């Protein structure tokens, strides 16, 4: 009954979308004819995926890299000057604001589906994804993420099918069923018999099927087989501000090991999906520091991928993509308080403010945990003086912390996190205008055989269709 209602609701939303949006079969056909590709089929495809990354955050990370680290940001300062570049529309079948599941489905299958869908169409029927096509041709598939590995994006690119992205237990077992070669990230609980509803011991099943199993950085460094299950955390892996690298490797270490293992006996090629989820997770939690730091780590991982591309340039396609923007990153001029709107009472964001953001040594999530739901003034003051030195906490925000209230109708995800994020914004000019995703188009960059297909302005379903066309050699 509930399911019927959901489908009915979905159908009406779809009707509205297809009535108001001109994008449909005809448009897609046009772009496809323009994008007929007759060149070489890439043997290896590396997708460097940074979840929840829009252009405002890219520019922020670029400036942070230049002025805090005094180095170049590789993606914008080097790669985008050589690569094909596209701007991708991200809306889903159920909303103009997609989630990672519908976006992943569009990009991995070419089908527009509803928020929450993993490689199923709007009728909830499974549709074929890139991972399955690569496996059918005898190639290898790796899914790597600093999120829980059964999360929406790796699930979609790892060939899972599910009507609901939250069925993590099913998605974990589908990686085994799909014979995915490397599975690396967080999400150990969905593989363990004591935490799974069906009590299956998936770690034992993977091991029996010939996979190596590792749980920390040291074990990862020693991993040698062609098939690997690597699970470093029960759920998501830690943010940089709280990470212990001997337990949880960085994305750079993860991609190095993945490419090393995929290179063994690589006659048929591979699809490697490497995800930085934490730009999205941090942006949901109004955490500018970690959003930037994880994007910089992604940029370093991208350089490892680029080096592989350089060594195999005639048969490797390297794609950089995001699935949507998160947080409505909003770097803007604000007033210091509400007493005056005159220019002397304004904050103009500057490099000094970027350096202040760099010095924050705690995630908003960990800070929220420290404060709890009803912190005292003394607890709040201690947190600010320890981790947010020099920050001013306005009285209205202090009251929200003490009463466990969120900031606004668009800034609500974690109550305490949203307030701390607002404090960071008011002190620096680096705001999140939302705690959810936005409809901002995202950048796609590609280099190598087939890269030309990712030029121009296109829909996320075109991304999927072009990728599938390349894998099928059409
Ligand atoms: Zn998200």
Ligands, ions, cofactors? zinc ion
CATH topology of the largest domain: Alkaline Phosphatase, subunit A
Lateral arrangement of strands in the main beta sheet = 5-6-4-3-7-1-8-15-2-16
Number of strands: 16
- Profile the largest sheet: 10 strands, mixed
The mean pLDDT is 93
The helix content is 40-55%
Q: How many helices in DSSP terms? A: 19
What is the quaternary state of this protein? single chain
Strand content: 5-15%
Assign the CATH architecture of the largest domain.
3-Layer(aba) Sandwich
Shape: globular
Q: How many structural units, i.e. domains?
A: 2
Topology:
Layout: H1 2-20, H2 25-34, E1 44-50, H3 55-68, H4 74-77, E2 84-89, H5 100-109, H6 130-136, E3 140-148, H7 152-157, H8 168-177, E4 182-186, H9 202-208, E5 212-214, H10 217-222, E6 228-231, H11 251-262, E7 270-276, H12 278-284, H13 288-311, E8 316-321, E9 325-326, E10 329-331, E11 334-335, E12 346-347, H14 351-358, H15 364-371, H16 377-387, H17 395-403, H18 415-428, E13 430-432, E14 437-438, E15 442-447, E16 456-459, H19 460-472
Helix pairs in contact: 3-13, 3-14, 5-19, 11-13, 12-13, 15-18, 17-18
The structure holds zinc ion (ZN).
């Amino acid at each position: 009954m509930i399911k019927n209602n959901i489908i009915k609701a979905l159908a009406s939303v779809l009707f509205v979308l297809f009535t108001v949006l001109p994008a449909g079969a005809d448009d897609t056909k046009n772009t496809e004819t323009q994008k007929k590709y007759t060149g070489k089929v890439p043997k290896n495809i590396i997708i460097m995926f940074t979840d929840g990354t829009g252009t405002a955050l890219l520019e922020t990370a670029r400036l942070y890299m230049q002025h805090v680290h005094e180095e170049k940001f590789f993606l914008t300062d080097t790669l985008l000057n050589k690569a094909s570049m596209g701007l991708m529309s991200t809306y889903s079948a159920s909303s103009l604001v997609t989630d990672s599941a519908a976006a992943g489905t569009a990009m991995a299958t070419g089908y527009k589906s509803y928020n929450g869908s993993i490689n199923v169409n709007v009728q909830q029927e499974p549709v074929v994804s890139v991972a399955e096509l690569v496996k059918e041709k005898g190639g290898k598939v790796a899914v790597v993420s600093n999120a829980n590995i059964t999360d929406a994006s790796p699930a979609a690119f790892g060939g899972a099918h599910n009507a609901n992205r939250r069925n993590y237990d099913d998605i974990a077992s589908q990686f085994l069923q799909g014979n995915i070669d490397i599975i690396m990230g967080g999400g150990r609980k969905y593989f363990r018999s004591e935490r799974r509803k069906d009590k299956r011991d998936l770690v034992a099943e993977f091991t029996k099927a010939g996979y190596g199993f590792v749980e920390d950085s040291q074990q990862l460094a020693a991993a040698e087989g062609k098939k690997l299950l690597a699970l470093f955390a029960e759920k998501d892996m830690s943010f940089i501000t709280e990470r212990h690298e001997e337990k949880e490797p960085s994305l750079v270490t993860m991609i190095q090991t993945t490419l090393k293992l995929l290179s063994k006996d690589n006659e048929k090629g591979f699809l490697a999906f490497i995800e930085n989820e934490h730009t999205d997770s941090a942006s949901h939690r109004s955490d500018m520091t970690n959003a930037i730091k994880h994007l910089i780590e992604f940029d370093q991982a991208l350089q490892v991928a680029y080096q592989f591309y350089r060594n195999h340039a005639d048969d490797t396609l390297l794609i950089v993509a995001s699935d949507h923007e998160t947080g409505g990153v909003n770097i803007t001029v604000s007033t210091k308080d509400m007493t005056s709107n005159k220019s002397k009472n304004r904050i103009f964001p500057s490099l000094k403010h970027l350096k202040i953001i760099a010095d924050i040594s705690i995630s908003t999530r960990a800070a929220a945990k420290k404060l709890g739901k009803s912190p005292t003034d003394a607890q709040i003051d201690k947190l600010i003086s320890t981790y947010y030195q020099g920050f001013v906490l306005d009285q209205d925000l202090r009251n929200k912390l003490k009463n466990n209230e969120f900031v606004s109708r668009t800034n609500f995800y974690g109550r305490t996190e949203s307030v701390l994020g607002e404090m960071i914004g008011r002190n620096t000019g680096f705001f999140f205008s939302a705690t959810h995703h936005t409809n901002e188009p995202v950048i796609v960059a590609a280099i190598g055989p087939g890269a030309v297909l990712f030029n121009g302005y296109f829909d996320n379903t075109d991304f999927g269709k072009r990728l599938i066309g390349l894998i099928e050699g059409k």
